[in-house]
Specification:
The chain is an alpha/beta fold. 37% of the residues lie in helices and 20% in strands. The chain is built from 10 helices and 9 strands.
Length: 247
C-alpha cells in the first residue's frame, strides 16, 4: 500500500513540489505544478500536503495578525519574526489592486496596518488555496499550512540557523538546510536531487521542509501553532504546523 505525501512552495506563479511514498522512500519525485489541485489530483493522490501559504483568513484582524501568525513570531524570536507577515483581512486579499488592498486592510484591522508589496504579491497564491478549499471541503483534512523557516528552525533543535538561504551566506545556508532535511529522515537521493526547471534552489528545499511537516502531520507527531488551532468564518483551519520536535 502506498502512502504518498507532498510539500508545496509558491514559485514564480506556480508551485514547487516534492512527493514521497512513506511506504517505499525510494519512490519520490519533484515537479513544478501550475495549480495546487494538480498536485492533489496527481496519480499519487497524496494523503497529506504541507503548503507554504496562509490558510484561514480573518474577517477582521486584531492585535497584529492571526493567532497563528503571533504564535509563529513568538517561536522564531527576534532574529526570525520578520519572516512572518500579518495576514490581512479577507476583503484585502480579494482586492482588485494594491491601493484597494491597503485601504481595506487598514479599515479591517486594529491597530490598522497595510500589507507590504511583497505580501500583496503572494495574494494570488492565497486566493487560489482559499478558493480550492472552500470549493472542495473534502481537501481541508489533506492540506496543511506550514512555514519553511519555522520547520527548519524546529529541525535545528529550535535554534536559529547560522546562515540564510539568500545573500552572501547562500551556499552555506542551502547546505545546512539539506543536512537538516537528511537528518529529519528524507532520502538522500531526494535531498540532493536536481530541482525541476523553473524552480529555485531555496524553493526546492522549502518544498521538502513542507514535505517533512506533511509526513509528521500524517503520523500524528506535528505541532500546531497555536494549540489548539482556530478556524475562520468558513470553517478553514487557522494554524501553522511544525515538524515533530527533534529528540
Amino acid at each position: 500500500m502506498a502512502r504518498w505525501i507532498a510539500g508545496l512552495d509558491g514559485c514564480r506563479g506556480a508551485w514547487a513540489g516534492t512527493l514521497l511514498d512513506l511506504d517505499d522512500p525510494a519512490r519520490h519525485r519533484s515537479a513544478l505544478f501550475a495549480r495546487v489541485a494538480d498536485c492533489l489530483d496527481a496519480p499519487e493522490a497524496p494523503l497529506g500536503v504541507g503548503i507554504d501559504v496562509p490558510i484561514g483568513l480573518p474577517d477582521r484582524v486584531q492585535g497584529g495578525g492571526r493567532a497563528a501568525d503571533r504564535a509563529a513570531r513568538a517561536f522564531l524570536g527576534r532574529t526570525g519574526r520578520s519572516s512572518v507577515f500579518p495576514v490581512p483581512p479577507r476583503a484585502a486579499i480579494y482586492a482588485a489592486d494594491y491601493a484597494a488592498a491597503k485601504a481595506l486592510s487598514r479599515a479591517g484591522s486594529n491597530p490598522p496596518f497595510a500589507p507590504s508589496i511583497q505580501c500583496f504579491n503572494i495574494f494570488p497564491y492565497i486566493r487560489e488555496v482559499d478558493h480550492l478549499l472552500r470549493a472542495r471541503p473534502d481537501l481541508v483534512g489533506r492540506v496543511h499550512e506550514v512555514h519553511p523557516e519555522i520547520a527548519f528552525r524546529r529541525l535545528n533543535g529550535d535554534q536559529p540557523l547560522g546562515a540564510g538561504k539568500k545573500g552572501p551566506q547562500r551556499q552555506a545556508g542551502l547546505a545546512l538546510r539539506r543536512a537538516l532535511l537528511a537528518a529529519a529522515g528524507l532520502p538522500e537521493a531526494l535531498v540532493l536531487s536536481d530541482r525541476p526547471r523553473g524552480v529555485g534552489a531555496d524553493d526546492h528545499l522549502d518544498a521538502m521542509a513542507a514535505l517533512v511537516v506533511a509526513r509528521d502531520h500524517l503520523l500524528g507527531t506535528a505541532t500546531p501553532l497555536p494549540d489548539p488551532p482556530e478556524r475562520d468564518a468558513h470553517g478553514l483551519p487557522v494554524v501553522i504546523w511544525m515538524p515533530a520536535r527533534i529528540g
